Amino acid sequence: MLIHHAKQSDIWSHELSIPVLALDVVIFTIYKDQLCVLLTKSQNNCTNWFSLPGSIVSKWYTLNEVFDETLKRKTGITGVYKEQLCTFGDNVARDPRGHVISLAYYALVKSEDFLNQVDYTQVDIVPIVDALKLRLFYEHDKILIYALERLKGKLGYTDIVKVLLAEQFRISQMQEMYEIILGRKLDKRNFQKKIFSLKIICETWKKDTSTNRPAKLYQFENKRIKVIDML
Amino acid sequence: MLIHHAKQSDIWSHELSIPVLALDVVIFTIYKDQLCVLLTKSQNNCTNWFSLPGSIVSKWYTLNEVFDETLKRKTGITGVYKEQLCTFGDNVARDPRGHVISLAYYALVKSEDFLNQVDYTQVDIVPIVDALKLRLFYEHDKILIYALERLKGKLGYTDIVKVLLAEQFRISQMQEMYEIILGRKLDKRNFQKKIFSLKIICETWKKDTSTNRPAKLYQFENKRIKVIDML
DNA sequence: ACAAAAGTGTTCCCCTTACACCCATGT
DNA sequence: ACATGGGTGTAAGGGGAACACTTTTGT
């Protein structure tokens, strides 16, 4: 854990006149056709309490490094799509150890990339609908709500959905991703018309024969995330 | 200055294992029909160098308190519209004194509320088009560009423009605010049609006789900032 | 009279939405 | 044969963009 780079004693020292900065991550993934988040479990007199994975930002580490380290520690992977959300610092007493300001990120990862590397004694994969009902440590409830809104918004004006799809995919799989994250059904014909008109995906001339009627496989024209009116 | 709440010696100490958090503010205002920002001047071997107004976040102060203090110090006013932008922390060496992470806000203020309270030896009011060409200290160039984009975006889906207008105003004054900030002309008829259809402003039945042909005066239905499709 | 800004409607186009049936394959 | 998901087109409505002339006042 990053916190070891710092001397614990001085981080929480009463002498120290500046607050500690923590970096907390909402790790989103699609698991069993549901939008889920990774939560850290803490045992607290026999009941589970949850919080978001996070690290203290130590001196001379960039935020990207701290993010990578946090994600790696919980999932074993790096190089995922991430976005900074915002900084929560108006509840100075939220952490009993001292004044902590929390910088929130979200990450978007494919569950198949990390599922077998997770230590399930430390981490739970929780459907977002359930996570939103939990009381989380610190102000992590707020962060979760905010992260979900941002993710939904981002789907509408960028092609980030590509980070959740395989290299090649059925158009219906792409639509499913939208439906799962947005939490509502979309019209099949209108969806296809829109996506094709954007010219962001192209046919591969291969077929996916895993369903009954074989389906065309598509791939994105390029890997870079584009800002573009999707919905 | 807030920095005095902290012991300078330990903030910049090499022993200290956490970075310092600074809060920097892009203070936007309309001045002489131009969108401007307030920049702090520093004398550096006979040439002016500029940076954004900012403060170190001291322990046990909320971000709101630090923001208020920073704004008050530069403009003498409080209680303005503000929005958090983002946190810059990937250039660990940007400040020669040590590792500083910068949390950026922007503020939107009426110039007539503070013009006579500014100490012009410390602060300049700079048109945004000029400010964008300046080389600012730290990563403040980036913050400026980002702040402007966010402000423009926000005009399109909220009624924040109300914080820049007088209690009562001509519809053309409202349009001018949009044109100044967006940096482009809008169609008069389409603008009015849109604004009236939103039912966010109402007639006051007063006239502004300061122009040639007297104009109707309007006011906003309420003071709360609304999320609403404006443009 | 002239200058300056206020006030006011219509048309066109595009994008969104709603909606239903046939097709290719596996079992 | 039947079940499953794939594939396809059209019509109606709403919102945005383009566009010019008359009115009211001050000078």
Structural class of chain A: alpha+beta
Compute the number of strand runs of chain A: 9
Order of helices and strands of chain A: HEEEEHEEEHHHHEE
Main sheet characteristics of chain A: 7 strands, mixed
**Share of helix of chain A, binned:** 25-40%
Strand content of chain A: 25-35%
Coarse shape of chain A: elongated
Give me the Rg of chain A, rounded: 20 Å
Distance separating the two termini of chain A = 40 Å
Count helical runs of chain A: 6
Low-confidence stretches of chain A: none
Could you tell me which chain pair has the largest interface and how many residues each side has?
Answer: A-B, 32 and 32 residues
Q: What oligomeric arrangement do these chains adopt? A: homodimer
Mean pLDDT of chain A: 93
Question: How would you summarize what this structure contains?
Answer:
Chain A has 231 residues and is an alpha+beta fold.
Structural overview:
The model of chain A has no long low-confidence stretch (mean pLDDT 93). The first copy, chain A, is α+β, with helices and mostly antiparallel strands and 231 residues long. In chain A, the strands form two sheets. In chain A, strands 1, 2, 3, 4, 5, 6 and 7 form a seven-stranded mixed β-sheet that branches. In chain A, strands 8-9 form a two-stranded antiparallel sheet. In chain A, strand 1 (20-31) and strand 2 (34-44) form a beta hairpin. Chain A contains six helices and nine strands; from the N terminus they run αββββαβββααααββ. The radius of gyration of chain A is 20 Å and the shape is elongated. Chain B binds a DNA duplex (27 and 27 nucleotides) through residues 170-172, 187-190, 192-194, 209, 211-216, 231.
